[in-house]
Write a structure and sequence with these properties.
mainly alpha; three-stranded parallel beta sheet; 193 residues
Length: 193
């Protein structure tokens, strides 16, 4: 499948722009400057559109290849702002949700069940079991972005999650110094390196 058919720019330009935005704490204008320094003149709004399109696509492909990791969610309390409101977004219902013993999470989970969410999900509260994910939400919040709508926040965060998952997998395999966001995106999309 050609993911870049009909695009004005070459696939490598799109991959670098999307990969840098999703992996590093850069704005669209900063990615635009990086590309401009390399002789590529592309608008920051074009980069935004690429992130919206490919962030969602990368997440879908990554999720299909990593189905087993979605059996159980380890969760910590966090939120992002969309139009100044807190957001709870359900991707797919897991079989098990593991949280720490914070009373606020237990209360929130019970409330979600009352509203009809997570009916087939078991909630386990085990102190310190989810410590590995305590820091996982930092890359999203570090950007200090104000998302204006769920429509724009969702593909961006999904793309960041896919790239973060690829990075963590590479790190787990002991090849941390060989990580290249562009190479990982090419592998994920099935593009020969």
């Amino acid at each position: 499948m050609n993911h870049f058919k009909g695009k004005q720019f070459q696939q490598d330009v799109i991959i670098v722009a999307v990969g840098y935005y999703l992996r590093y704490n850069l704005s669209y204008r900063e990615v635009q400057e990086i590309l401009y320094d390399r002789g590529i003149n592309v608008s920051h709004t074009t980069i935004y559109r690429w992130v919206q399109e490919y962030g969602k696509r990368l997440y879908q492909i990554w999720k299909k290849k990593n189905k087993k990791s979605f059996y159980s969610w380890k969760m910590d309390e966090t939120y992002i702002k969309i139009k100044g409101k807190r957001l709870v977004k359900q991707f797919d219902e897991p079989k098990v949700v593991v949280t720490d013993k914070a009373p606020s999470i237990t209360s929130a989970f019970k409330k979600l069940k009352e509203y009809g969410f997570y009916q087939g999900t078991e909630h386990r509260t085990i102190k310190y079991l989810n410590n590995l994910i305590e820091q996982d939400h930092r890359p999203v919040k570090r950007r200090n972005k104000f998302y204006r709508s769920l429509r724009t926040a969702s593909p961006t965060i999904k793309g960041m999650e896919a790239i973060r998952g690829l990075y963590k997998k590479t790190r787990k395999e002991g090849t941390l110094f060989g990580f290249s966001v562009c190479t990982e995106i090419k592998v994920l999309l099935g593009i020969p390196a």
